[in-house]
Design goal:
Blueprint: H1 4-9, E1 12-16, E2 19-20, H2 22-30, E3 37-42, E4 44-45, E5 56-60, H3 69-89, E6 95-99, E7 116-120, H4 138-153, E8 156-159, H5 162-168, E9 177-179, H6 198-203, E10 209-214, H7 224-232, E11 239-244, H8 250-260, E12 265-268, H9 276-281, E13 285-289, H10 292-295, H11 302-308, E14 313-317, H12 322-330, E15 333-337, H13 341-354, H14 356-372
Parallel strand pairs: 1-3, 1-6, 2-4, 3-5, 6-7, 7-8, 8-9, 10-11, 10-13, 11-12, 13-14, 14-15
Helix pairs in contact: 7-13, 11-14, 13-14
């Protein structure tokens, strides 16, 4: 049986994350002092401020394609098979840190004896409910079986919240689960006044109240609620709803906005690393929106980036989620159930018109939560 002693005796580590970003980069860099060799396997590595240490070796694999369900499953499957081949021939004896992208990557742990841990960003098979696969499905049952087998063998299961830990207790003893808070993508994320923000100046938006969604526009993100809000508030010319990023739902949102003739909604693509601190800091209100099922299965890292620039947060999701607890505990803004357009509009207008003191208080609460509590870069060292 793999044990923690054997885990730490492995002097080489392979980190697997098909869609890598700053969280994985930070962990890989932290491992440089702990292991003789650190290898990061990815298809895409989205770099913001911090880059990979030169000593971290790179193992490329197929890039994750999220533009359709078929392409998503295909690229996940190819990456999982590629990983199995590499574990059989190239990385024997390496410690493995599996991220749940691809979500079935850790299935390989059934076939190989490498000591391993799993970083659970999305709790499968629970998240499959998003596409209509429930507990009665053979896919769901099989995945649950694999989880029980694999997680039982793991040295450690790392996840992002107490809510996600609660889901994982269906598969593994709580003693193996470690909860780690996410940290911001940049230590330079901070508030920037509108008149000193080059991003706002470039687009001529210094006088706008910006409602920002920045990130992936996937099928599971209930961003149509935000468009509906924009439609109700279309006569308020100083309010701008800004979507930054890409994803499978972006074209649909753009079509809805065009069909409705909404001039108060704008779309931009991903911003470069040097612009990102300013595009995030442009938010007078930052949005985190998830579908009901996904609300309980993942914690969006964008939330902690928003907090680091002092943005009040509008959370849109189901009742009792981890996001709701975070917003309410730290008094970061408003958490609203899906479809509560009137509540969202009233909250937004109150911040814009009547309660600038409350807006200032929410800004301070976001900064305090980011800087004074548990959401900081040093968390990388607990992996």
């Amino acid at each position: 049986m793999v044990n923690e002693y054997a885990f730490h005796m492995a002097h080489k580590i392979l980190i697997v994350n098909q869609n890598s970003g700053y969280l994985t980069i930070d962990v890989a860099n932290a491992f440089i002092t702990e292991y003789d060799e650190v290898v990061l396997m990815y298809g895409l590595n989205r770099v913001t401020e911090r880059t990979l240490h030169p000593k971290v070796k790179v193992q490329k694999t197929i890039t994750y394609n999220r533009t359709s369900t078929v392409k998503r499953l295909w690229t996940w499957g190819i990456c999982t098979l590629h990983l199995g081949f590499l574990l059989a021939w190239k990385y024997r004896g390496y410690k493995v840190l599996y991220y749940t992208n691809p979500p079935m990557s850790y299935f390989n742990a059934l076939l190989f004896s490498n000591p391993f841990s799993v970083v659970v960003f999305d709790t499968y098979p629970d998240v499959l409910k998003l596409i209509g696969i429930n507990e009665s499905s053979w896919i769901y049952k099989f995945w649950k079986f694999v989880n029980i087998k694999v997680f039982g063998k793991a040295v450690q299961i790392i996840t992002l919240s107490e809510g996600m830990k609660g889901q994982l207790l269906n598969y593994v003893n709580g003693d193996k689960i470690k909860v780690v808070s996410i940290w911001p993508a940049s230590e330079n994320f901070k508030p920037v006044t509108k008149n000193n923000n080059p991003f706002l100046k470039e687009h001529g938006w210094q006088d706008k109240f910006i409602v920002l969604y920045s990130g992936n526009m996937g099928i599971g993100h209930k961003l149509d609620v935000l468009v509906d809000t924009a439609e109700v508030l279309k006569d308020y010319k100083d309010i701008l709803f800004l979507f930054i990023g890409e994803g499978a739902k972006k074209s649909l949102l753009q079509k809805i906005v065009k069909d409705k003739g909404l001039g108060n909604v704008k779309f931009l693509t991903w911003q470069s690393a040097d612009i990102l601190p300013y595009s995030l800091a442009a938010a007078d209100l930052a949005v985190v929106a998830l579908a009901p099922e996904a609300t309980y299965a993942s914690v969006p890292s964008k939330t902690f980036n928003y907090m680091s620039v002092g943005a009040p947060i509008l959370g849109i999701g189901s009742e009792g989620s981890e996001l709701e607890g975070l917003i309410n505990s730290y008094k970061l803004g408003l958490y609203s159930k899906l479809g509560d357009i009137e509540i969202i509009c009233n909250f937004l207008l109150s911040l814009r018109n009547e309660n600038k003191a409350i807006h200032k208080e929410l800004v301070g609460n976001s900064l305090s939560a980011s800087r004074l509590y548990n959401f900081y870069l040093a968390n990388e060292y607990v992996f």
